[in-house]
Amino acid sequence: MTTADEIKNALRVLALPEKAEFFPRFFKAGKGQYAEGDQFIGVTVPDQRKIVKEYWSRISLEEIAELLSSKIHEHRHSALLMLVSKYEKTKSEEAKEEIVGFYLKNKQFINNWDLVDNSCYKILGRHAYETDNPELLLKLAEEENLWSKRIAIVSTMYYVKRGEFDLLKKIVLKNLQHPHDLMHKANGWLLREMGNKGETEFMAFLKLHYHKMPRTTLRYAIEKLSPHLRQDFLKGRI
Questions:
Q1: Torsions phi, psi of 72, nearest 5?
Q2: DSSP three-state, residue 39
Q3: H helix runs in the chain, sequence order
Q4: β-bridge mates for residue 39, sequence order
Q5: What would the pLDDT profile of 181-212 be if each residue is shown by its tens digit?
Q6: Is the model's pLDDT at 166 over the cut of 70?
Q7: What is the pLDDT of residues 100-132, one digit of tens each?
Q8: Helix or strand or coil: residue 156?
Q9: 138, 170 contact by CB (below 8 A)
Q10: How far is the CA of 31 from the CAs of 49, 51, 74, 92, 197, in angstroms?
């Protein structure tokens, strides 16, 4: 039995039928979007993390690829959690490069809200920052695929957490008018984090561009502002 088979069996033991019915409704109720054909067996994230803690060090990238190509959401989510653990725990730059290359090669399977937000900035964002390679994320932002774009914008969180906002501004402006609501939410969410780290720079950016933002982006971006300021931005009085 392979390690991937062991993980599938371990997840099956933890599966809850009531959660399997709940998770799709949870996503569709506004939390995000899952890939067409996705199946849920009903394993919670805390339970997945228990599996990850046990298996991440001995599963190979080839077996992670097997889990990523599964139609079962929890297989793919657990695979990405293990990939993050491998990236964070390795000291070898060569091994890190291999993991980043693997992530990019398999990003067609990282195609729903939950998978993107739980993996990309901890791998791609960190790698782009630590190797001074923002072009990696800018290139993703140029792709037509929704999830590639969302991976790019969410990955800039690593820069934002360190008080660097130029890359975020470029990618947000590049995709500000994207038609999908998931991009509007990602743009707004990251802008809000920018405001938490650098209020002066955030307000300057917001005053310059807020009139071009989709309503969803604007609402997420200004969520932490005072009620008075929120109303002024929403009503275009700034």
A1: -85, 120
A2: strand
A3: 3-14, 17-26, 45-55, 61-68, 73-89, 93-105, 113-117, 120, 126-130, 135-142, 146-155, 157-161, 166-174, 181-197, 199-209, 215-221, 227-234
A4: 72
A5: 889 999 999 999 999 999 999 999 999 999 99
A6: yes
A7: 999 999 999 998 888 888 899 999 999 999 999
A8: coil
A9: yes
A10: 21, 24, 17, 36, 25
SS3 118: coil
- SS3 state at 112: coil
Distance CA 187, CA 182 (A): 9
Q: Is the pLDDT of residue 230 over 70?
A: yes
* The pair of three-digit structure tokens given for residue 230, joined into one six-digit string: 């929120």
CA distance 21 to 124: 32
The pair of structure tokens assigned to 122 is 């901890």
DSSP-derived secondary structure letter, 28: I
The pair of structure tokens assigned to 85 is 């653990």
- Distance, CA of 146 to CA of 151 (rounded, Å): 9
DSSP β-bridge partners for residue 72: 39
What crossing angle do the helices spanning 61-68 and 93-105 adopt, rounded to 10°? 20
Tokens of 234: 């929403």
CB 151 within 8 A of CB 107: yes
Give the SS3 label for residue 72.
strand
Q: How far apart are CA 115 and CA 29, in angstroms?
A: 17
CB-based contacts of 150, cutoff 8 Å, min separation 6: 113, 116, 182, 183, 186
What is each CA distance from 152 to 106, 146, 181, in whole angstroms? 15, 10, 16
The letter for the amino acid at 76 is R
3-state secondary structure of 109: helix
